[in-house]
Model the fold of this input.
Amino acid sequence: MLQYQQVSRVFGDGTRAIDDIDLHIRKGEFCVLLGPSGAGKSTLMGMVNGMVTPSQGSVLFDGEAITRRNLKHLQRRVGMVHQQLHLVPRLSVLHNVLAGTLPDVALWRGLLKQFQAPLQRRACRLLEEVELEEKHLHRRASELSGGQQQRVAIARAFMLEPDVVLADEPVASLDPNVSRQVLHLLKQASRRHDSTVLCSLHQVEYALEFADRVVGLRQGQLVFDGRPAELSDDQLRAIYGDEYHTAVQPTAVATAVPPAPRPVKVNKLTPALEY
Done:
């Protein structure tokens, strides 16, 4: 699905953020990037949606090299879940999710918030999948808790049925219980929609709990690539160096996998959804 071919990125000040990486991420994988701050995780992810251009090498998206010519087309196939969320606080939950369709809808519809009924129904189904109830639809995003806002961001990321979802530190500001709920919902959504997820995390225990595959970076270099069960203490020390003890300190005792979403009957238009 995603292939990095001898990719490097050197910034103007000489910083080598990514150093000659070869990596192939397969379709449907939930792949977690681990590494200390400055290891190159965000830079590696940014090469997928065109935010970062490799200094050398190439990145292939479903066998097609990412270039300026096809970038706009490929960006439509990528969903984003940010640490800072990037929701519009004054807009409703529903409209924030519908904003995920803006690359594909007419500009006037986006400006006037006149989204067609099938898109509204899809937004409602996605909100149901992340376990938000009908009462949340018309609340402003600013009125939600951090965990609820991140659920809205996940629903928005899947509006255009992306092939790839990039999640950059999606639970960095959340407490451990909420973090696990959010990661569970993100992984569940990726399975349901057959999407590949590339997710950067600082918490090793979350990677062990949710990842299909772990990629460890240190100073821009690939130092581990394998299944979570293969991640030993020695390999964690190679990834984190002096930060090893901080990185592997558990934030909370692992809890059971959250239950399946409760059915919420918001999957069809009701008078409450009409403008």
